[in-house]
Specification:
The chain is α/β, with parallel strands linked by helices. The protein contains 30 helices and 28 strands.
Length: about 800
C-alpha cells in the first residue's frame, strides 16, 4: 500500500449501505482508502491494523446514532445505555481514549461526528471538556447530497460551509463543493443556479463570469420586476391568499389596487374621484385597444388574452386573464349595477366571490398562488377583495440587488460582444417608453408602432375621417390634423432618444392599422366597399388611401430636422407582400426626405410578416437596408390563419398536434422558425450588409426563441420596454451567445458590432422621465375629457 494513501475511517451502522464512499471521495478529486465500519469493534480493528503499518487515519467519522454496544458505557460520564442515541459521541470518545495510548505518528488527525440533527450532539459535547474542542459536527445531508442520494424528509437544510468538507479540501487535497451552487453543479453539471448564487460565486473567486452566466436560472427573472402582494403583511392583516378567490391562468404586468369598472365611463368617473380603475372585460377585441388609455388594470374573463398580452406589455398595465370555463367567474347585473360573481365555493361554506362595480379589489400577477384546498391549480394571476399591501418589484432600488443584476447584465453584455451576439432593443411607442427603454439599457427602439398614437378619441376620429371620406377637403383637414399631432409626438420622441447618443436607433413603423382596431363594424363594412377588398391593412391599405404614408413621412422628417436628431433613424414599411408595393412606398418616402434635406439621414426597413414576403426575401433585401420579422402575424399565417385572440382555437390546435409547452404566440413554433431561417438565408445572399431583426412578442424573455435568433444569425431582437422583458432578455441573449458563438455573420465578413451596451443606472420606480409626457399619456384629466367628449 503506497505510503501517501489517505485513510478515512467511518463508523456507522447504516450509512455504508447508502453511500459509496470510495466513489464519493474519488469524485471530489481525492485518492483515499475509505473503510466503513458498521460497529465500533470493527472500526477499532481497522484503526489498529493501520497503526501497526505505521499509518494514522486522517478522519475518524462516527454516526451520532451508531449502535455500538455496552462496552462504551464506562466512558460516557452520564452512563447512557446503548440505545439512547448518544453512542456516536461515545464511539468517538472511545477512539480518542485508545489514541492516547498510541504514538503521535499513528493517532487520528481529525475527528468528525455526523448527525441528522446536528444541534443535539453539540449540546452533549459542549458539556464534555474531553470532546468539545476536538470534535466537529456536521449534517449527514452534506455528504448524502454530494453522493447524489437525494434528501430525506425532516433533514435540516445544508449549512453551505461544512467543517468536514473544508477540512478535506484544505488538508487532504479533496475538492468537495462548499456552496449550494457548487453542490448543484457537482450533482448535475448542466444545472441552473439562482442569480444571487452566481453573483457570489464570481464575487468570491470560485467561478468565472462566463460560467456563472451560463448557469443562471432565468425562469423567474421577470417576476423580480413585478409588483406583488406583500404576503407577510397581507396575512398579518387577515387577508387570505390561499383560496376563496378567483385564480387566473395567465397574468402580465404587476399588482395594483383599484376599483372595479365595467365600462370606460365608469373608469373615468372613478378617476374623477381620485381612484384607480380596474376594467372588467368579457372579451378583448381589437376595437378595445383604445381602452388602454383609461384602465389602470384589466380583468379579462373570455377570449382575446393573446392580443391583450401583447398590447399591455409596453404600457405597464397589470392584466389577469382566463376564459369563462376555467375561471367560473361571470358578470351579473342586479338593480342596474354590475358585479363579478363566482360559483358557490364548496370550501367556504358554499359562499360565492362577489365584487360590485366601484368596489375596491387587488389584482396580482407575480408569484405562485395555490388554491389551498387541493394543492393544485397554481395560477399566474389572482384577484382578492379589498386593498392588499403591495410590494414594489424593483431590484435596482436596493444597492445589493442592483449590484447583483448589474453584474449579470455586464457578464451578458461582455459575452454578446465577445462571442458575436445580437443587440437587444425595445418596442416603444411614446416618449415615456423611449426614456424608460434607454434607462433600462435598450440598444435602440426596434419597433415604434405609429398606430398606437391614435388611442385618444380626437386622434381616432381624424384617422377614421381620413380612411372613410371621399371629400378632398375633409381628407386634407384630417391629414393635417394627424400630421400635426404626429409631429409633436415625434419631436418628444426624438428629444428623448437623442439623450442616448448616435448609436441609438429608432425604427418607426408606418401605420399598420387593421380596420377592426380603429373602426366600428359598420365603418369596416364601408371601408371594404370603398376599397373593394377585405382585410386591408399595412402597406396595402396605404396604397388604397393615397397620401397616408407621405403624411406620416412629413411628420417624421420635419420633427427630426427640427430637433436635430443625430441618432440612427429608420422608417419601416409594414406587411410587405410584393416588391412592387415596397418600391412605391420607398419612392414616396424618399421624395419627402429629399424635400426636408433628410435624404441621407434615414434608412428603409421592411416588415416580413407574410408567406409571400418570405418567398420574395431576396428581392426585398435588394431594396432596403434592413428587415424585421413580425412574428405574431407570421405565426398566424404559418398556422393556417390561426388567430392569437382565439385562445380556445389555439388550445384545440395545441392538443390536436400534441404541442407541449407555450402557445405558439408566446414562443417561436417550428414552422415559423423555418420561415425565418429561409428569409435570413435568402436576404443575406442578396444583400450581405442587410440588418435583420425580430420584434414579435415570442422573443420577450423566452430562452428557446432567443437561442434560435442567435443560431440563425439575427442582428437584433426587440422586446417590450419594461424591466421584466428587457433585463431578462439581455441576460438570456448573453447565455445564447455563449451557447452558440458566431465569429462571422457571412463568409469572409466579420460579425456586426454593437457598442451601446448600457445597464440600468438607477431605480426606475423613482426616476420617471420628465418633460416627455404626451397629452394622451398618463394625464387623467385629459383622458376623462376625451371620454366625456366621445360620450356626448
Amino acid at each position: 500500500m503506497p505510503g501517501n494513501k489517505k485513510r478515512i475511517l467511518i463508523i456507522d451502522d447504516d450509512i455504508g449501505t447508502m453511500v459509496d464512499h470510495d466513489a464519493l471521495f474519488k469524485n471530489c478529486g481525492m485518492d483515499a482508502e475509505v473503510f466503513v465500519a458498521h460497529w465500533l469493534q470493527e472500526g477499532m480493528d481497522k484503526l489498529k491494523e493501520w497503526a501497526a503499518d505505521g499509518h494514522p487515519a486522517d478522519i475518524v467519522d462516527s454516526d451520532y446514532y451508531v449502535t455500538t454496544g455496552p462496552d462504551l458505557e464506562d466512558f460516557h460520564p452520564n452512563n447512557y445505555d446503548a440505545n439512547n442515541g448518544y453512542n456516536g459521541v461515545s464511539a468517538i470518545g472511545h477512539v480518542m481514549k485508545w489514541a492516547e495510548t498510541q504514538p503521535e505518528s499513528v493517532r487520528p488527525k481529525k475527528y468528525f461526528l455526523h448527525s441528522k440533527t446536528s444541534e443535539q450532539p453539540w449540546r452533549v459535547i459542549s458539556h464534555m471538556p474531553e470532546l468539545k474542542d476536538k470534535v466537529d459536527v456536521y449534517d449527514t445531508e452534506e455528504l448524502w447530497e454530494i453522493a447524489q442520494l437525494g434528501e430525506e424528509d425532516g433533514f435540516p437544510t445544508n449549512r453551505g460551509h461544512s467543517t468536514l468538507r473544508q477540512y478535506c479540501n484544505k488538508n487532504l487535497g479533496a475538492n468537495f463543493p462548499l456552496t449550494e451552487a457548487q453542490l448543484k453543479l457537482f450533482k448535475q453539471p448542466d444545472a441552473k443556479i439562482e442569480l444571487q448564487e452566481a453573483y457570489y460565486e464570481v464575487l468570491e473567486g470560485r467561478m468565472a463570469p462566463e460560467k456563472a452566466l451560463k448557469h443562471i436560472d432565468i425562469s423567474n427573472l421577470g417576476d423580480e420586476f413585478r409588483d406583488s402582494i406583500d404576503r407577510e403583511k397581507a396575512e398579518a392583516a387577515g387577508i387570505e391568499l390561499s383560496y376563496g378567490r378567483p385564480g387566473f391562468e395567465r397574468g402580465i404586468g404587476s399588482a395594483t389596487v383599484g376599483s372595479l369598472a365595467f365600462s370606460a365611463e365608469e373608469a373615468a368617473e372613478l378617476h374623477r374621484h381620485g381612484k384607480k380603475a380596474i376594467l372588467v372585460l368579457e372579451e378583448f377585441t381589437p376595437q378595445d385597444t383604445k381602452l388602454l388609455s383609461i384602465a389602470d388594470g384589466i380583468v379579462l374573463l373570455g377570449a382575446g388574452s393573446e392580443h391583450l398580452e401583447v398590447v399591455v406589455a409596453n404600457h405597464n398595465i397589470p392584466a389577469v386573464m382566463s376564459n369563462k370555463e376555467d375561471l367560473e367567474l361571470k358578470i351579473e347585473e342586479v338593480g342596474g349595477k354590475k358585479r363579478l360573481v363566482s360559483k358557490p365555493h364548496q370550501y367556504r361554506e358554499g359562499k360565492s366571490f362577489v365584487a360590485e362595480a366601484g368596489e375596491e379589489v387587488t389584482i396580482a400577477t407575480a408569484g405562485t398562488y395555490y388554491r389551498g384546498y387541493d394543492d393544485k391549480g397554481t395560477t399566474a394571476g389572482m384577484m382578492i377583495k379589498g386593498a392588499a399591501p403591495i410590494e414594489i418589484g424593483d431590484p435596482f432600488k436596493y444597492e445589493h440587488t442592483a449590484d447583483v443584476y448589474n453584474a449579470a447584465i455586464d457578464w451578458a453584455d461582455a459575452a454578446r460582444q465577445k462571442h458575436g451576439g445580437f443587440s437587444v432593443k425595445a418596442n416603444a411607442d411614446t416618449p415615456e417608453q423611449v426614456a424608460k427603454a434607454i434607462e433600462l439599457g435598450a440598444e435602440g427602439v426596434g419597433l415604434l408602432r405609429t398606430e398606437h398614437m391614435f388611442f385618444a378619441e380626437e386622434r381616432l376620429a381624424a384617422l377614421q375621417k381620413a380612411l372613410l371620406t371621399d371629400d378632398a377637403a375633409e381628407k386634407k383637414a384630417a391629414f393635417d390634423s394627424i400630421e400635426k399631432f404626429q409631429k409633436d409626438d415625434f419631436v418628444k420622441i426624438f428629444d428623448a432618444a437623442g439623450k442616448a447618443g448616435q448609436d441609438f436607433a429608432v425604427t418607426i413603423r408606418l401605420l399598420d392599422a387593421p380596420p377592426e382596431e380603429f373602426l366600428s363594424p359598420s365603418q369596416v363594412a364601408a371601408l371594404t366597399a370603398k376599397v373593394g377588398e377585405k382585410n386591408m391593412r399595412g402597406v396595402q391599405l396605404a396604397e388604397k388611401i393615397p397620401g397616408l404614408y407621405a403624411m406620416q413621412a412629413e411628420a417624421i422628417f420635419d420633427a427630426a430636422k427640427e430637433t436635430g436628431y443625430a441618432g440612427k433613424l429608420e422608417v419601416m414599411i409594414p406587411l410587405v407582400r410584393t416588391v412592387a408595393e415596397l418600391k412605391a412606398v420607398k419612392h414616396e418616402v424618399a421624395e419627402i426626405a429629399k424635400k426636408h434635406g433628410m435624404q441621407d439621414r434615414y434608412q428603409l426597413r421592411a416588415m416580413v410578416e407574410t408567406l409571400e414576403a418570405v418567398k420574395c426575401a431576396g428581392d426585398i433585401a435588394k431594396e432596403v437596408s434592413g428587415v424585421s420579422f413580425g412574428t405574431n402575424d407570421l405565426t398566424a399565417e404559418a398556422m393556417g390563419d390561426m388567430k392569437r385572440d382565439d385562445i380556445a382555437a389555439t388550445r384545440e390546435w395545441m392538443a390536436k398536434h400534441n404541442h407541449v409547452g407555450k402557445s405558439p404566440f408566446l414562443t417561436l413554433a417550428k414552422p415559423v422558425k423555418a420561415m425565418i431561417k429561409e428569409t435570413v438565408e435568402a436576404a443575406r445572399k442578396a444583400n450581405p450588409d442587410i440588418d435583420i431583426g425580430i420584434c414579435g412578442h415570442q422573443v420577450a424573455g423566452d430562452y428557446p426563441s432567443i437561442q434560435f435568433c442567435q443560431q440563425v444569425g439575427l442582428d437584433s431582437i426587440s422586446v417590450p420596454a419594461s424591466a421584466e422583458h428587457l433585463v431578462s432578455s439581455r441576460i438570456i441573449a448573453g447565455q445564447a451567445a455563449l451557447e452558440h458563438p458566431r465569429i462571422q455573420q457571412t463568409a469572409g465578413k466579420p460579425q456586426k458590432s454593437f457598442t451601446s451596451l448600457r445597464k440600468p443606472r438607477t431605480s426606475f420606480t423613482e426616476s420617471a422621465p420628465t418633460g416627455t409626457t404626451s397629452p394622451d399619456g398618463n394625464d387623467r384629466d385629459s383622458r376623462n375629457d376625451q371620454w366625456d367628449r366621445n360620450k356626448d
